[in-house]
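Notebook entry, structure prediction.
Reason for the run: the old model in the group folder had no record of what sequence produced it. Starting over properly, with the input documented here first.
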Amino acid sequence: MKALKPKVSIIGAGNVGSTFAFSLMTSGLAREIVMIDSNEKKAGGECMDLSHGLSFSPPAKIYAAGFEGCAESDVVVITAGARQKPGQTRVDLVQANVEIFKQMIPRIVQAAPEAILLVVTNPVDILTYITLKISGLSAGKVMGSGTVLDSSRFRYLISEHCDVDPRNIHAYIIGEHGDTELPVWSNASIGGMKIRRFCPKCRNFDNCGREKELAELFEEVRTSAYKIIDAKGSTYYAVALALVRIITAVLRDENSILPVSTLIDDYCGVKDVCLSLPSVVNRKGVERFLRLDLSEEEEKLFRRSAAAMKDILKNVKF
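New structure, fully documented this time:
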């Protein structure tokens, strides 16, 4: 039977996968949503629960399947993997998840060779690179969720600090989705104004724009996930919305600029590693990444982030 289009397959029916499925269903972006999980009973239960709400949402077909269910998918979103525990860094997860991906990626590609693969599982930059190498797909067809969520957190905190709608803030977190990520303050703007020019106009006039204040704001971004995991076990609401945003850019061929994790080829002296940079995302996947004019310090931090990922990859068997 021919697939309904657009079709999105979700690998993993845990908190992130199921919350994303709900968000995707209510968005109306996909006509066919498939959930695939090693726990077939759970995947089936999630799909049943979602399907019972279809009279309140746009039309869609939602069901559980094996990897063969990926066939004719436009996008396959990979959320499956070992779960991050309180106090555990993302990179601690790496080898366990690599072993899972070694079994999973060939089966996905066999079923859906034309699909775009969106990796969400942490550590996302390492696993995006692993997926690219195992799959044999072109670089543009494999991306990670990267720092799309981190950048959203960044904009939210700036918006709270400056009392401005976060949708009017252009500011990015780049590099690793994790401990070595970095804020691009040199390019951050609000309503077309550089943030350091705008900040004196906000309510926190006396302190706003000082380096200490900005450093504290970024530290809140960097540690947000750890705080949420400590409080409730895992993060899933905001990341689900971030994934819907990425899927929207792909399925609607938007040419949107999103800081997804993608293969870096010779930028700031960095190559052959997946990291996040603002990138043009459309129906082809990642068309290109933007070569930002970074400050000297930002370039240094970006290279440090790349070096940290390469150090991990040296010890990964795939």
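Summary: The radius of gyration is 19 Å.
The old model has been moved to the deprecated folder.
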